[in-house]
Amino acid sequence: MIEDYGFEKIADKKNGEYIFVKRLFPKKDKTYLPGEISKKFYPCFYDSREVSKFIVPIRPGYHSKLFTDYKRQTKLSEFMEEFIVEGNTIKKAYLCHSKTKGLKEGDILLFYRSNDVRELTSLGVVEKVYENVTEPNQIVSYVGKRSVYSRKEIEEMVNKPTKVILFKWHLHFENPLKYKNLLNYQILKGPPQAIIKISHDKYLKIKGEVKINDRYTFN
User: Does the chain have fewer CB atoms within 10 Å around its N or its C terminus?
Assistant: First the structure.
């Protein structure tokens, strides 16, 4: 598990413990794939033109469960230590019926909370994508403990071929970008109903507006 966040074991201690180290910056003489950067140098990520960027709409109920720490009042059940485990993890899963193609490891996901606040809130990096899944057991095996969807919800979703996106959450935006500004900047033409691929230039505009710190990005 710890290796998934860039830690490497360098030694075994006599008492049975292990020594791990984490490199903070890439080696200058080595080339890394975008997905490797997200893994080895988390929470940093690669955001050059080589990776695609997508706006991902998500309804408020699922957004609150998937990103439990995002501007949300703590519920009584959480004071009673009944936490939504899946929402408190870095590795997450998103299920949808979007027909958008081309998502791959290392691509950037910009999550848009629809209906209520209507704003871009968070950024994730794709780890793996499964297309056209129609068996609930398959989805359960793919997502493990990542999913905020109940078994019943999964069974209902697979009535139509379902896309399963496994991703790593990297950050919430310091300055979430409102829908009206997404329209004004011509990033969107209307409310996103499915996953939308955007250009690198539009991503750069978003990056500046939501104040993503350059220390988190490699390009």
Answer: N
**Which residue type sits at 8?**
E
Is the model's pTM score more than 0.85? Answer: no
Element (H, E) at 210: helix 200-210
Asked if 198 and 53 count as a contact pair (C-beta separation under 8 A), the reply is: yes
Sequence-distant (≥ 6) Cβ neighbours of residue 94 within 8 angstroms: 56, 58, 66, 109, 164, 165, 167
Dihedral Cα 182, 185, 186, 192, nearest 10 deg: -10
The first and second tokens of residue 124, run together, are 């994730």
The CA distance from 170 to 173, in Å, is: 10
Domain boundary assignment for the chain: 50-202
Residue whose structure tokens are 């999913």: 147
Alpha-carbon span 34 to 74, nearest angstrom: 35
Whole-angstrom distance, CA of residue 209 vs CA of residue 83: 32
pLDDT, tens digit (0-9, with 9 covering 90-100), for 144-159: 877 778 889 999 999 9
Q: Which two tokens stand for residue 96?
A: 């949808």
